[in-house]
């Protein structure tokens, strides 16, 4: 009886050691696969128990977090590349115009032409200055160094002012804004200049990409003590 009991204990110990070795091997194999860059790999914890199962689930969660971080980094890099491309294109337009009109001023021209040339140069140089300023602001924002001056801003008034500034552009683009809000005013704590920048960017994109002859819906709602402003439009391309 004691010999049989001793053999059973030995067998159980061997089984535990073998099971532990198999679990460690499975976990190490998963770690090696993830280390080589396959973050979609998931360790099968079906036959893992106790601490082994917890460790496997922890590794799967860690791989998922690493995958999300990698996707966010790739998205950020893609956005930076698109930003550089767009800004380079935007800067090229006024710069080319300035070069061309400087060349025209070097040639014989009348006083009337001189006044026209100076007006174009002034307008394009101001546009170029604004684009460079926008680029600097974007650089500060991406590095977390943007300065923010918080104060009370009326969100309803901010949207109405933005729509007023863009009324001519919206009319030329055959776009019809519909601003819907339940209250006459909506005080918020924000930086008025940055709120304007957000609304300006949204409306600028609508002017560039919205389908002519359609409406732009701006909705201002109150949710859990906060103000939400949403803009919806139909894009020109599918």
Molecular structure report:
- This protein has 6 helices and 5 strands.
- 66% of the residues lie in helices and 13% in strands.
- It has helices at 2-35, 51-106, 111-143, 155-165, 167-172, 192-209; strands spanning 151-154, 175-181, 187-190, 214-223, 226-232.
- The N and C termini lie far apart (81 Å).
- The strands form 2 sheets. A 3-stranded mixed beta sheet has the order 2-4-5.
- With 238 residues, the protein is an alpha+beta fold.
- Strand 4 and strand 5 form a beta hairpin.
- It is elongated.
- Helix 4 (155-165) crosses helix 6.
Proportion of residues in helical segments: 55-70%
The pLDDT mean sits at: 85
Instruction: Classify the beta-strand content into a percent band.
Output: 5-15%
Question: Structural class given helices, strands, pairing?
Answer: alpha+beta
Spatial extent as radius of gyration: 31 Å
Number of helices: 6
**Uncertain segments of ≥5 residues (pLDDT<50)?**
none
Listing every helix as H and every strand as E from the N terminus to the C terminus, the arrangement reads HHHEHHEEHEE
Distance between the termini: 81 Å
**Count of individual beta strands:** 5
């Amino acid at each position: 009886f004691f010999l049989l009991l001793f053999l059973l204990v030995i067998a159980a110990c061997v089984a535990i050691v073998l099971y532990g070795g198999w679990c460690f091997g499975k976990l190490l194999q998963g770690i090696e696969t993830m280390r080589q860059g396959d973050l979609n790999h998931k360790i099968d914890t079906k036959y893992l128990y106790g601490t082994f199962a917890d460790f496997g689930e922890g590794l799967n969660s860690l791989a998922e977090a690493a995958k999300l971080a990698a996707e966010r980094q790739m998205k950020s890099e893609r956005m930076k590349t698109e930003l550089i491309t767009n800004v380079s294109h935007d800067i090229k337009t006024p710069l080319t115009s300035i070069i061309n009109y400087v060349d025209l001023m070097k040639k014989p021209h009348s006083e009337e032409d001189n006044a026209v040339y100076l007006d174009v140069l002034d307008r394009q140089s101001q546009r170029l200055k604004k684009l460079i300023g926008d680029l600097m602001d974007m650089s500060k924002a991406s590095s977390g160094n943007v300065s923010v001056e918080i104060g009370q801003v009326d969100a309803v008034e901010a949207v109405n002012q933005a729509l007023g500034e863009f009324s001519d552009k919206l009319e030329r683009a055959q776009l019809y804004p519909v601003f819907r809000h339940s209250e006459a005013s909506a005080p918020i704590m924000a930086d008025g200049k940055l709120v304007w920048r957000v609304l300006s960017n949204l409306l600028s994109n609508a002017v560039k990409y919205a389908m002519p002859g359609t409406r732009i819906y701006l909705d201002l709602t109150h949710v859990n003590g906060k103000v939400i402003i949403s803009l919806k439009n139909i894009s020109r391309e599918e």
